[in-house]
Amino acid sequence: MPNLRIRDAAELLGVSDDTVRRWIDTGALTAQKDDAGRLVIEGRDLAELASANARPPQARLGSASSARNRFPGLVTRVVVDGVMAQVEMQCGPFTVVSLMSSESVRALGLEPGSVAVASVKATTVVVETPQ
User: Which terminus has fewer CB within 10 Å in the chain: N or C?
Assistant: First the structure.
């Protein structure tokens, strides 16, 4: 099982290094010292904490969906080109890009600054690991 340094664990969880250190101090996470004397967290422990603290975003827009992956965010860019449009959203630390019809953009009133939820339901998800 991989061991992760505090800064890497923090980056993966989207929190500060200090937050991870507080979790270690309060016993929410267990850390060991590696061969170089640095605090590391076992990958499995970090995954368990991430799963236990995961909360689906509140659908404040009054909609229901079968899509499990829902990312509330802010529209940052809309490019309309004839029949199709590209809509970019910032959903927390992630950028989500959607291609849709120009008619849909107009019907939804999407423009930079609009609050929206990106719902992702894919049959293919590519998983990569670092080298």
Answer: C
